[in-house]
Please model this.
Amino acid sequence: MLSEIPLSYFLVVSTLMFFIGIYGFLTRRNLITILMAVELILNSVNINFVAFNRYLFPDQLEGHFFSLFIIAVAAAEAAVAIAIIISVYRRYSNIDVERVDTMKF
Amino acid sequence: MSIHELMFYLFSGMILLFSVLTVTSRRILRAAVYLLFVLVSTAGIYFMLNYQFLAAVQLTLYAGGIVVLIIFSILLTSHISQKFEPIGVKKMVFSALAVAAGALLSIMAILDYGFDTVVTTSQNPDMELIGTSLLSYEKNGYVLPFEVISILLLAAMVASIVIAKKEKSK
Model:
């Protein structure tokens, strides 16, 4: 049964995943890999919502629907981010965040 | 150890292992494939928690849609054989320290807090319930976010076409 696994185990897994995503966000320099780190972060938040929904409020579906909407927003975000990345690549011929600094003061 | 626990440890181990590989791999296409594995194992966690519709959405939209989009943009913008230069030791150590401190603090707070869980017979919300709540405007209805998200998706679609479009040559 599910009750053999405490809720905090799910939360620990999603916390670790969140901070691994932060680590990637801090150390990566390629724009697409930064985007992948952001996807990791969003995904870990989803696990939190779903686990809370199942363990604390099993007869309501708030966490479930929140996760659905987060997935939709993540899809929109990825589409716009990739459009921006392609546009940047067309202008500068690379997508390294440290070499795209025209607007830096 | 029951089958449930075994599945949980398998999925969470896969999630953690492939997350680390996603952010540390020096070949970008491999990082994208590791991200795919992370998302599929997350769908496994949703199946385990008995939210089958959500798991299916995760598989089709995240693992099927977003990862394919990312792989396409990788193929458009970088050379496959190219490896990233290793990151500087100083940057790596300081990022790892900050991340470890944050993770430790959060995990201590989580383990310290007693959640009063009420997990009963875990039943899968059926499609009829999901569909009617998405379109209902009563209590526990989600028609407003549903409509807002449809406009957001339309706006994002138009915006990405406009941004990625080739500029007119003068």
User: Anything to note?
Assistant: The two ends of chain B are 69 Å apart (CA to CA). Chain B has two domains: 3-125, 126-170. Chain B touches chain A through 83 residues (CB under 8 Å).
